[in-house]
Amino acid sequence: MSVRTRIAPSPTGDPHVGTAYVALFNLCFARSQGGEFILRIEDTDQVRSTPESEKMILDSLRWLGLEWSEGPDVGGPYGPYRQSERTDIYQQHAMELVDKGHAFYCFATSEELDEMRREQVARGETAKYDGRGLSLSAEDVKKRLAAGEPYVIRMKIPDEGSCVFHDLLRGQIEIPWSQVDMQVLLKADGMPTYHLANVVDDHLMKITHVIRGEEWINSAPKHLLLYQYFGWEMPELCHMPLLRNPDKSKLSKRKNPTSINYYRHMGYMPEAVVNYLGRMGWSMPDESEKFGLQDMLDQFDLRAVHLGGPVFDTEKLDWLNGRWIRENLDEQAFANRVAEWAINRDNLARMIPLIKERVEKFSDIAPLLGFMFSGMPKLDTSHFEHKKLDNETVRRILQYSSWRLDGLRHWSRDGLYEELNQLAQGMELKLKDFLSPLFVAVAGSSSAPPLFDAMAILGPDMVRARIRSALEASGGVSKKQLKAWDKDYRLLSAARTEHPEEQA
Question: 141 CB contacts (<8 Å, ≥6 apart)?
């Protein structure tokens, strides 16, 4: 059977470097074996999934040169390749499991389940589903369904013993069934959870090897059991080591920019980013640090992946990117890449409205627009001094704005104004004062072209990264403060939801 691997990103936010990392290794393994690499969109979270996010994922992976042979944009024999277009398939398979006695209806409300977990924790037990749905008689279930009561479908889990499975990198893994919850397979809205959709899609799309992050190891027993329930052969499993921050914690945007678009907008070469991701847990046979995608494809051996948590160090990436610029670009190629990056006609045309009324000669352009082409502004606490805002208020503005912008689904000038204006009102600050730290964070100065227009052009990745960088420059936030501010921010957000008329 021909090797088939896949990447299945969820379009609920910025395209993550972890997605590119796993995609790269899936691509290299499949192509090194003469197989196919597939892209599937896991958009069953209908609240958070957006077409904009899907487009960003596809664009960013293509920018890196990671091409797929089947997917939502190119088609293929096993489509559709968006899970939201496959709901009938999942519902049919969920009912098949119910009919076979491998899954069951659960009518418990969220309040009942919350109370169940509280009682379990109070008794010193692990919080997990207690199997109450299994006690319902067939007649009971029939009556509740006829009455239109909302329900979910859960899978049955063995009471005793352990699940044993093989991992291509880690060998035999054993997990007691007592640690595995009775997973929801079909939600009350009729949409599948990741676990059901993942197994059904991988089987129907003939995936032979599932290469994914190690955070999914504990889900493997559920998936293995579902394959057994359906009578299918399970693909080979390979759990890649997670990317880490320099302090060895899991890679997070609080400590490292995690969006592929950030590195694209910062002016990194895609070849260098792929090269760097390839070095995360793998080495060329000759230990060379600089290599291209084709070099990796030619030399790839999955068994050479090592399990130590690879550290994502942007200083090392800077060094590697510098080598690619110096060693691979002559003067003409350098000029072409710079023009392609940002100094191009289309990009400049978007910025001209920001400064045209303030320009008296063309040499005024560079000082006015310099922040649009730079990375992180060099800032310290002195940049945030304000006659009406103390340092704690400045840091609260930056932190609350970061949280608000992280949750913004559609990035536009008017949307940014609406969100930040509402936040300023919630914090009982005049908009002019509230925006002062954000001007400094985004533009490096309290005097700059219109802020919301500039933020819209810079894009979410760069703006969010600059605000997080500014927060550290202004003094940062302790864990104790973060906990208190998070509570306050949630109260502000709840008040906004409960009284939207007051925000009009």
Answer: 105
Residue pointed to by tokens 């400045």: 394
**Structural contact between residues 411 and 419, judged by C-beta atoms closer than 8 angstroms:** no
**What percent of the chain clears pLDDT 90, i.e. is strictly above it?**
86
Tokens, residue 64: 């890196």
Q: Is 253 a catalytic residue?
A: yes
Which segments within 324-452 are labelled E, that is strand? none
| Catalytic residue selected from 55, 128, 156, 253 | 253
pLDDT tens-digit readout, 241-287: 999 988 888 888 777 789 999 999 999 999 999 999 999 989 999 99
Higher pLDDT, 165 or 346: 165
How far is 166 from 169, CA to CA, in rounded Å?
A: 9
Averaged pLDDT for residues 372-388: 93
Whether 501 has a pLDDT exceeding 70, the answer reads: no
Q: What is the pTM of this model?
A: 0.90
φ and ψ of 215, to 5 deg: -65, -15
Distance CA 22, CA 277 (A): 9
According to DSSP, the residues that pair with 387 across neighbouring strands are: none
Q: How many residues does the chain have?
A: 504
Q: Scanning the structure block, which residue is given the tokens 């503005």? A: 397
Task: For residue 398, give the 3-state DSSP assignment.
Answer: helix
3-state secondary structure of 5: strand
Question: ω into residue 235 within 30 of 0, thus cis?
Answer: no
Residues 156-175 have pLDDT tens digits of 999 999 999 999 999 999 99
> Listing from the earlier edge strand, what are the strands of the sheet with 162-167?
171-176, 162-167, 236-240, 209-213
